[in-house]
Amino acid sequence: DLLGVSRHAPDTEIKKPYRKLAKEYHPAKNPTEGEKLKEISSAYEVLSDPKT
After folding, report:
1. Cα(49)–Cα(42) distance, integer angstroms
2. pLDDT digits over 9-42, tens only?
3. Is the pLDDT of residue 52 over 80?
4. Residue 13 buriedness (CB in 10 A; 0-12 / 13-18 / 19+)
5. Residue 27 burial (CB < 10 Å; 0-12/13-18/19+)?
6. What's the CA angle centered on 16, arms 3 and 19, to 5 degrees?
7. Which is the most buried residue in 11, 23, 25, 30, by most CB within 10 A?
8. Which bin fits 30, alpha (ψ -120 to 50), beta or left (φ > 0)?
9. In sequence order, which residues have a C-beta less than 8 Å from that of residue 15 and are 6 or more positions away?
10. For residue 36, with 0-12 CB atoms within 10 Å meaning exposed, 13-18 middle and 19 or more buried, which class applies?
11. Helix (H) or strand (E) run with residue 20 in it
12. What is the DSSP letter of 9?
């Protein structure tokens, strides 16, 4: 839900929203949102892992 893509979406559909959100919540740009970036990164790892 965080990235707005299906669990079965191909990697190319997962990367685009991940990169957009990672830029938006990066500590250099948004220093108070470090926890949000961790959540986004975790969601990306789960979705991009072919085993899940």
Report:
1. 11
2. 999 999 999 999 999 999 999 999 999 999 999 9
3. no
4. middle
5. exposed
6. 80
7. 25
8. beta
9. 48
10. middle
11. helix 11-24
12. -
Report the candidate in 17, 24, 15, 13 with the shortest Cα–Cα distance to residue 2.
17
CA distance 45 to 47: 6
| Structural contact between residues 7 and 47, judged by C-beta atoms closer than 8 angstroms | yes
**d(C-alpha 4, C-alpha 14), whole Å:** 9
Residue with the two structure tokens 């938006």 = 24
| Whole-number Å distance between alpha carbons of 38 and 22 | 9
